[in-house]
């Protein structure tokens, strides 16, 4: 088992005893589609280094858009599926147990019984509970229960983000070092913005005002400064935490449908984001291909004008986590993504976690002399302005 491949080990073993009776022949019974016990992070195949060379040039030149998913938050809160399961238990979700880890479905049930305000608060309270449970060993005692009966999620998340960025391999720290002018995130938190500020950059947060009672302001009418490497645009596709923004979170199943329909029909995606998504290399990080956030984002991107340019000018790197995918999924995911990006697009699958991909990318950039250093963050009095 040099490489963790069971079927290969079995073939070698059978070859060793091929002159013996059938009773000597080992047999393999496994539920693993790939027959692989462990993996080596990286792009698959003999051309892995060519993939890196193809990717590094646009990244080093700033022609890249990182698209960030929820798995980058697991170091802060834990698995989002576990969060959904705990919410389902706390609110006596009545449907099948295998649906308890589906956050949009669980919150959809909650929204039928509760006001939207209460659903958002319950979701944030669960995140707060999960964050404290995961980091209570080092968090200041005065900031968490029982000393603090009303801890603030924003303040604790800022502490956790700063703590995690002390590790050179922290994904948000590495993302902040990339010379990108536009970042796209499906997460609600401002950890990415705080990491950018810590790297002496001035990010501008942009959200889509999709939930409205009157005709929305067109994306082209929004006042958005031109994104630059020094002042990048961070587009929160599904909204962001904050006193004025909670109502715009895309949380429930109906939210996802309404968001997609309204955003496409009313052309609510900022043109700066539209152009960036069709004229740059794309890095998909921290997604499960079956999650609502990925599927709706994917459908939204399919509606963007000019997406055919991706077939000729764009390289797409997709990181898939081995804990959630099988080796068979790699080829399936590649075919699935090709339906959107076009058969001529350069699509490569990185087998490994988001952290492993970003660390490998940072190392490759460092070897090419393109890595930038970060600086200490400036203090902020606003809970969510970090």
Structural domain count: 2
CATH class of the largest domain: Alpha Beta
Work out the helicity level: 40-55%
Poorly predicted ranges:
373-378
Structural class: alpha/beta
End-to-end C-alpha gap: 47 Å
Largest sheet, if any?
Answer: 8 strands, mixed
- Write down the overall mean pLDDT: 83
The CATH topology of the largest domain is Rossmann fold
Shape: globular
Concise structural overview:
By secondary structure, the protein is α/β, with parallel strands linked by helices. Helices cover 42% and strands 9% of the residues.
Give a description of the structure.
The chain has 386 residues and is α/β, with parallel strands linked by helices. The protein has 2 domains: 38 residues, no CATH class; 234 residues, 3-Layer(aba) Sandwich (Rossmann fold). The chain has 15 helices and 8 strands. It has an 8-stranded mixed beta sheet with strand order 1-8-7-6-2-3-5-4, with helices on both faces. α5 crosses α10 and α6 packs parallel to α7. The longest helix has 20 residues. It is globular. 37% of the residues are buried. About 2% of the residues have low confidence.
Defining key terms:
alpha/beta; eight-stranded mixed β-sheet; 9% strand; single chain; Rossmann fold; 42% helix; 8 strands; 386 residues; 2 domains
